[in-house]
Amino acid sequence: MMAGLGGWCLLGLACLAVAHAVLPAVPLWMPVSLGWVALILLAPRLCSLQGLQFLILLIGGCLAGGIAWHRGQSPDIIRLLGANTGLVALLVGVSFLRLVSLPREGHEAAAPVGRRAFAQTLLGTHLFSAVINLSALFIVADRLMRQNQDRKIVLAPLARAFSAAAFWSPFFAAMGVALTYAPDAHVGVLIAQGIPLAIISLGWTYWQFSRTAPEVWEEYRGYPLRYEALWLPILLVIGVVLLHLVFPAVSIILLVAGLALFMSAIMLWFRQPGMAMAEWTGHVTRGLPRMSGELALFLAAGVFATGLGQLFEVYASSLLLSAFSLWVALLLLAVMVALAVLGVHPVISISVAGVWLASLHVDSNFLGTLFLCVWAVGVASAPLSGMNLALASRYGIRAGSILRWQGSYVAFMLLAIVPLLGFYYWIWEVSA
């Protein structure tokens, strides 16, 4: 009962956040309040680690904000509590896409076999994960784990295919975070700059695993993904672009959230008119409450980043860098990925870096791409990321195994990112 009510609060948050962006007469406190009410209702679902992380971020943000207010900053409770409301709305809206994107029971084809099947599975998982996130990863992994004995050759590549979508997908929370903390970035530029990195990630993964002994590939069974279903993400991207032309002042994050809600409702109604309402309400009452961990993390990270940002404004002269350079960017990349491996979620380090660098006039497209790189590589390697925690509990793998499987991948991707970031930095300097 409480979980279901929390789900309805999350749906209300998404709808009201979009409504506020389009019609400012809708007060912002309404979606912000619903987010915190939902968190209170869903708090019993949090594990002890999630609860501890939430409290640390919340208390830290409130203390920083309190000091800033004591030093003369104007208090803004709605800004403090609602900094990441748009990101939560994005997560809620995109989650409904799984209702119209996932394969129906009995509609799956026979499993392909061999290296070609591995390549198809890798690419297909990447593309579908870019739209429906973890749902695609688990559906593919569940079937492959029933058909293949080697957990590493199944789970490690799928985790990379999923996390690599963070380099470019506008439907990933990573893009929402990047656009929040690099607010003047253009989503089209971030996508264009991120796609080469995703291609490198998938190419390296295929090359690395395809060197496995031939007898392994004779027994490998892939997933029969239907590429004709790609019309949905294509339609979504076109819709977001058109809506952005009509509502240029509305955040891309909220355009994606609103369009995802609208399209999933319409498509579900046309596909299954008799079951549409039951599936929709079922997702609200059972699916959305599963986001309790993400909800707690994003709300608390918003408080932490906002409070810290106000504190930085008070002590600007002593806390801020005098200049930004490529070397600073690369150092930040390495430090934030290392923090992810140690258990600090990328949204925390990105939010801190975002407010820290806000006054240095860093090119937003470069900064946004840097944040996407941190998320994509950090999530793949972090034992405490939501993806890896879910894989560990679902398939019985240890945190140490994740680090061993992904260690070489992280090292390679960091090396691959350096020249591309250097090129993007050069473009920024030339165009400045």
Automatic annotation (TrEMBL):
It comes from Thiolapillus brandeum. Coiled coil: none annotated. This is Uncharacterized protein. The chain crosses the membrane at residues 37-65, 77-97, 117-140, 161-181, 187-207, 228-246, 252-270, 291-312, 324-357, 369-389, 409-428. Keywords: Membrane, Transmembrane, Transmembrane helix.
